[in-house]
Write a structure and sequence with these properties.
This protein has nine helices and no strands. By secondary structure, it is mainly α. Helix 7 (about 135-145) packs across helix 8. The termini are far apart.
């Protein structure tokens, strides 16, 4: 391994450590607790080292959001694939229900990551040509299942945006304690039955 390759590997390792530490701190104490000073203390690097990787908290939030988007895409695809395999049929409704549950579970299980993805300014472009690939892929993971239940006269991406907005609303309102938890499953069933053409 050349000196340059070793340096690049070390740099990538430090960057992963910064992102993982920021994510852990945000999940434990909220994003307000994530500062470059606290991160530097936790990872035992100086603040200038952090700034050599990220210009500030906004870019760190963006890095966490991209990581989260990749994880969410994987979780959505795993849920819909497992449903198709478990039911031994290609039933669209079951896949849409599995997708909705996986989305809501991801949001509930990873609140700081979810905030980085959709609530905080991470400096990332959405729905534009320069949208980063992990964000495009997360949307694609939704579209793969939702596009087939949009209906004949409905643009699949537009339907996916509407369904996603509904899921986001459910995730956000549930987390804020605005919706009674005992109806969580019924909400998913109602959303699928009323919006999807299955």
């Amino acid at each position: 391994m050349s000196v340059q390759e070793r340096k690049e590997r070390e740099r990538a390792s430090r960057e992963r450590l910064i992102v993982a530490t920021a994510r852990e701190l945000a999940e434990q104490q909220g994003w307000d607790a994530v500062t470059t000073r606290r991160l530097a203390e936790r990872i035992e690097y100086s603040q200038p080292v952090l700034y050599s990787h990220f210009r500030g908290k906004r870019e760190i939030i963006g890095a966490v959001a991209l990581e989260g988007a990749a994880e969410m895409a994987g979780a959505l695809r795993a849920a819909t694939s497992a449903t198709a395999t478990a039911t031994a049929t290609d039933e669209p409704r079951a896949r849409v229900v599995a997708l909705a549950r996986a989305y809501l579970d991801f949001a509930a299980d990873n609140p700081a990551v979810y905030d980085a993805m959709f609530q905080l300014d991470g400096g990332l472009a959405f729905a534009q040509e320069d949208t980063p690939e992990p964000l495009k892929d997360a949307f694609a993971a939704l579209l793969e299942t939702l596009g087939e239940v949009a209906g004949d006269d409905v643009h699949p991406a537009l339907f996916t945006e509407l369904f996603w907005a509904s899921l986001h609303g459910l995730a956000t309102l549930t987390r804020a304690g605005r919706l009674p938890p005992e109806y969580s499953e019924l909400r998913v069933e109602l959303l699928v039955d009323r919006l999807a053409v299955v």
